[in-house]
Specification:
DNA-binding; six-stranded parallel sheet; homodimer; alpha/beta; six-stranded mixed sheet; 348 residues; Rossmann fold; 12 strands
Chain lengths: 348, 348
DNA sequence: TTGTACGCGTTATCAA
DNA sequence: TTGATAACGCGTACAA
């Protein structure tokens, strides 16, 4: 079991100095053709590759991006990762992942671990718990140490950094307007608690769409789901809440749900109550997932272009990493990704 | 914008030597209480953390695991990653990901990139193209340089390394037996081309289950789908093939599909042809996905326990990394993960 | 044309 | 009790 070969070993074998080998391999004009040939042939034979770690230490640059997400078993986040990875690899970077699992402390620990030299910058979406606690010291500390951060999707406006967000507000608004156009008179909202930034924005879009059309938003039609019910294990409880919503508001003929799971659950409950989709109730969800496409009936959704978000985030970060340090002009961008309404069978 | 603080800077500030600082921070008995206090207080104030890269170089160990998968936007693989990440973090390792995107060359390039010092070992599932080409030189080269590999799910028996696989054969066999028990007389198989190792094994399970029950496997009932049709864009073509299968074999009353997508497509086509599920046709799929759970009717599947696979793979790899180099006794394990049949509405 | 010395940040060994 | 030195692997400025 041989170790990876180093410059030193090549130098020793060929009886030249390390720097001669180094230069020869980089095709320096300083070195004679003869030596270059010899060295290069030997290096090729032994499949020499410079050690990344040594290069990172020397250059004080790892060419690695850290990505921290709350959850990976999730189409939205895995699509974002794919986008990041695509751009990162194209531009010569690796991607290292950390999962916060929606926990504040895991988010902090993971970031600290990676920030100690393993990576050049972060791309992240903050955990629900962090949003709830509103404790952002770890982001500020990381940036104050010269490590840039790009936030995506779940961002926090207090933090000064580059951001890539979905146009949640307008996406939601357009979705609800679609329902209104389609003659829905009583449109329910199934959303998250307000501390989830994207949930809040989508809720606002829902409200504004209604108001624009002289429809009075009614709190009885707005169901705000507790996070705890998001996980697969609590599907029943989620469905029970939605069933209650339908039963208390028999006039509901349209549903806008802020994610895929809520939308599918709504359809399931509606069917169970003998309602036909889309004839009795029309449903629109919000997401990028596969569930929508393969549901029965297939679900009309607001597409977030997750992969594109990842690509933009990666470009923003790498641009910043590679920018000549002009001045400390600290200018931060917020890229807004437009949504698309993908119409399927759950609406007319 | 300050950089991360180093031992050298602390030493300079406190006017002691670097090694004194280093020892003081590690609470060495060599250092006086007085100095230790001083140094530790200062380090804490400036939030000193050792540079991972420097440690990696010194220790010739990165404490990072590389994971190469064909595709991340996929429940199975993202669950495996979650399992790997869980164990890795618990044992003090980071996880860095590379996507082969089912391409041989991307797999090779990604591995080379990571193998040059960035990681201590690989956990991977080989790309379809690699399986097709049967070119495994990159795996052997990596291992000959002392970097261990753990393969999972899509493995290749020629390669000597640790492996974690699903019991594809028995999982498939049990699924088909279930259909037989449920009185299906004409069971179709929807599978991949044979070079996909798992597809082949599941096909064999199907065949053996039939033979065990004195049913003659018929090639007309076995549909082998071309990879090209796997992507979301070619759903129509996939469905057309399946429709053809049903039309040519009107007696089909059971379907075993080797993945979730094929199973769902089969259900969709069947319904389109006026067949009721499960009364006219019963369907069983193979996978861990969310699609099965949320499909209508929900799909009976063979569960692979993806997260558990990831955990086992990570443990195998880290065990090997941390084992004292006894002898070169090169013993490799193959862990077989049992499957479970999750019964839902698509079977009686 | 080749080699020496230095530094990236750290720890271990040995000397003072 | 403290400090100097070497080493991990590399690239480069400078000396020979």
């Amino acid at each position: 079991m041989k170790r990876k070969i180093t410059l030193k070993q090549i130098a020793k074998e060929l009886d030249v100095s390390i720097s001669t080998v180094s230069k020869a391999l980089r095709n320096s004009v300083e070195i004679s053709e003869d030596t270059k040939q010899k060295v290069q042939a030997f290096a090729k034979l032994y499949n020499y590759r410079p050690n990344n770690i040594a290069l990172s230490l020397k250059n004080r640059k790892t060419n690695t991006i850290g990505i921290i997400i709350p959850e990976i078993v999730h189409h939205f986040f895995s699509k974002v990762i794919r986008g990041v990875e695509l751009v990162a690899n194209k531009r010569g970077y690796n991607v290292i992942i950390g999962l916060s699992n929606e926990s504040f402390s895991k988010e902090v620990i993971n970031m600290e671990m990676l920030a100690n030299g393993s990576i050049d910058g972060f791309i992240l979406s903050i955990s629900k718990e962090t949003q709830q606690m509103q404790d952002y010291h770890h982001f500020n500390e990381t940036m104050s140490q010269g490590m840039p951060i790009v936030m995506f999707d779940r961002v926090v406006s207090d933090i000064k950094c580059d951001k890539v967000i979905v146009d949640d507000f307008n996406g939601a608004k357009k979705a609800v307007e679609k329902l209104i156009q389609n003659n829905c008179k009583s449109i329910a909202l199934i959303t998250t608690k307000d501390y989830v930034s994207v949930g809040k924005l989508r809720t606002q879009g829902y409200i504004e769409a209604l108001e624009d059309h002289k429809i009075m938003p009614q709190s009885s039609l707005m169901l705000k789901i507790d996070d705890q019910l998001d996980s697969e294990e609590h599907l029943d409880a989620l469905e029970a809440e939605i069933e209650q919503l339908f039963k208390s508001n028999k006039e509901i003929d349209g549903v806008f749900a802020v994610n895929e799971l809520y939308a599918l659950s709504a359809m399931k409950v509606a069917r169970k109550l003998g309602l036909d989709i889309p004839n009795d109730v029309q449903v629109i969800g919000f997401t990028d997932g596969v569930l929508s496409k393969h549901a029965t009936p297939s679900l009309t959704t607001v597409s977030q272009h997750a992969q594109h978000m990842g690509e933009r985030a990666a470009d923003l970060l790498i641009d910043k990493l590679e920018r000549e340090y002009d001045v400390e002009e600290e200018e931060f961008q917020t890229v807004i990704i437009a949504t698309d309404l993908v119409e399927r069978e759950s609406t007319n």
